Structures
1.
Amino acid sequence: MLNTVSTPAPLVVVIEDDLASQKTLARVLRVGGYEAATYNSAEEYLAAPPQSSPIVLLLDVHLGGMSGLDLQRRLKTEGSTIPVIIITAFDDARSRAQAESLGCVAYLSKPCAAETILALVGRLAKDDPSSTDVRSH
């Protein structure tokens, strides 16, 4: 008898206030073999109980309340090692420079090809899986 133990799909967190973009990103990730946890705002993500450690955060820059860059800054200050990919419809040099100085692994402009997102996430999934989610509840 063959013992088949399924391992959970790697978790990717999507923080995006545009519902259509959020659903598209989640669908792309699920088709690519990842679990997608979606949040409408940085505040919603921070208030949610931590799940298993995500392999990456996909953050929009402009989120209505706290920006994606402010969230990235806060998480870094608190010691998070979760990689961040910024995806934005409003690419500007200042935001890009801030995101890169905070250590984002990629800064992408919308619309972004599914293949690009999956390639980046796949690369991160193969890297060090010991990222730290510093949120505690």
Note: The chain has five helices and five strands.
2.
Amino acid sequence: MKNILFIVIVLFTFSYNLLSQNKNHDSICEDAIYVKTDDYEGVILGPKCFKFQVVDKFGNNMDFDIYDYKWKPTLNDVTIAEKLIKEYVIKKSKKLLINQGNGYPIIYQNFDNYVRQYYGYFNKKGQKILEVNFLWRDSKFIEEWKIKGITIFDGCSYFWHISVNMKKKKCFNYSVNGIG
């Protein structure tokens, strides 16, 4: 009888502690997959994670929901996209460094200093588009990067974004933030 009572108390305590934990920067959205390899770290945001946080240059936050036609990328999608993105950015950087240098990171030299957010939607043709936010790992603005999408205005190459058409295997909408 004592053993059963002990087990019930332990299970109750464990369940209570597990359910009552506060969200912190190590939390992750319930519909997300955390990804970490030797080359990159990120989170795949599923449709339930589509509350986006937009931070302006004054640190003001605005939350909103985006996209009606969402899909959840897979680990394989991320692997393919990472290869395409790296090739694309290196090729573009040989021609022009947009909002990079002069004290700001050179993106192709710092891929490992960014955490990523991956999320997907279907375009008007029904093709899967993978959106990727690149957020500077040490930024004070990204505490909740595993919980919801974050879009930051300004900050130059500390924050940038790119889209990948998964059917065509092509990158587009490469956008490096401007100076604030």
Note: The radius of gyration is 19 Å.
3.
Amino acid sequence: MSRLPDLDESDLKILMELQNDGRMNYAEISRRTGIPSSTVYDKITRLVNKGVIKKFTVILDKEKVGFGVSALIGVETGAQLYKNVAKELCQMHELIKVYGTTAEFDLMAKARTTSLEKLNEILNSIREIKGVDDIFVIPILKTFKDEDIVPLSESIHAFVVEGVTNTKIE
């Protein structure tokens, strides 16, 4: 198991609770984890300052806000323009994820939009980016799981069962 740098068992417990409900107050986190409220506050502040917690946000129901069309887009690029293409893709707000890969495509992106017509406009914009050799589109017909969480439970298990010790964030 790879070790989590600068995180102790208490940090992981707090992070798990916040991943489940980012609006949970310190007293409730304290009750659920057994960590004193003042320590919860200090640890969360430290985790934010160290960049472990990037931001607190709201998860919207995509369908209910009119963004029910999604697609995965494979992008082939030339090696020399790979970084430039990635940068351009990252600037497109309809592309919610952009990955570099070693698969058939150099880059993979996930688009989320309001209609197939809008998706077609996005695809045309991608085709116009200098350095894009080809694209391959996989429409998403049904989403069975869509979570953006880090599976911390196995790391907590390692602390409890294996007695892993890490240094705490200062």
Note: The beta strands are 69-77, 95-100, 107-113, 132-140.
